[in-house]
Amino acid sequence: MIIIGEKINGTRKAVGLAIRERDTEFIKQLALSQVQAGSHYLDVNAGTSPEREPDDMVWLVETIQETTDAPLCLDSANPKALKAALDRVVKTPLINSVSGEKQRLEGVLPLALEYKTGLILLALDDKVGIPSTCAGRMEIVDHLVGLAKDGGLEESQLYVDPLVTAISTGDKNALITYDSIKAVATAYPKAHITCGLSNISFGMPLRSLINQTFLSMCIQVGLDSAITDPNDRNLMGVMLAAEMLMGKDKYCQNYSRAYRAGRIGPKNI
Ligand code: THG
Predict the structure, then answer these.
(1) Which residues line ligand 1 (CB under 6 A)?
(2) Which regions of the chain are under pLDDT 70?
């Protein structure tokens, strides 16, 4: 499972404040704790206005890279901010994200092709927004995968995000995600499939319980990456157990190692 740590996101109050105040230590601590908890990539979302975003992204990228060499997932729709960040990253990043929206196709896709980055593809466009059916989402995904491959990216550099919408706004919303994950896994076996897990539980009590259950169900149908909080020990436990039970953990090594390292299970005080 490729874990993209989500916590460096300026739309979160404390992070927004740290960005405004250039609180280096706060951001470094967030980066370090997510890497120690098992993140493979760190999502970087400045969440600020378009005028400030390039400077804020550069500051975030440089601050994070002073403390870890984990690759970054540049979470922005702003080509100027992305370009500034791309010129400073040490490791090949992911770009989060391109969609069927004209602005992103014209502004973001060319950057991914030029810098040969990994690329997250969102199943939405200007015409319909997020389609309510799996077929509608796949139509957009097919189009985006075609453009990315024609532009020179390998299928294995693509991370398809079928988009998770809250279960509180539609009682079949999780089912659409499962169908989409299955369809992507069948059509593009070398591509990765990721999603923002916690979207599922917006507006509901006991969110972590819902997120954990949803994660195990998504893993069963082929999810191999998640944008999530790696410091949620319970969620990480479910992730490792579900992967092991899907035959994706040789000799149960990952699960056992995480247990021995104290990363899952009850915390020893
Ligand atoms: N797909 C892709 N990228 C994404 C998303 C997605 N990037 C942004 C988002 N969704 C995933 N990232 C986060 C980051 C932080 C939080 C949730 C998702 C978070 N939320 C707190 C909560 O929900 O309770 C509230 C914020 C706070 O702490 O103030 O922390 O779907 N490709």
Answers:
(1) 6, 9, 12-13, 45, 75, 96-97, 120, 161, 164, 195-196, 198-199, 227
(2) 269
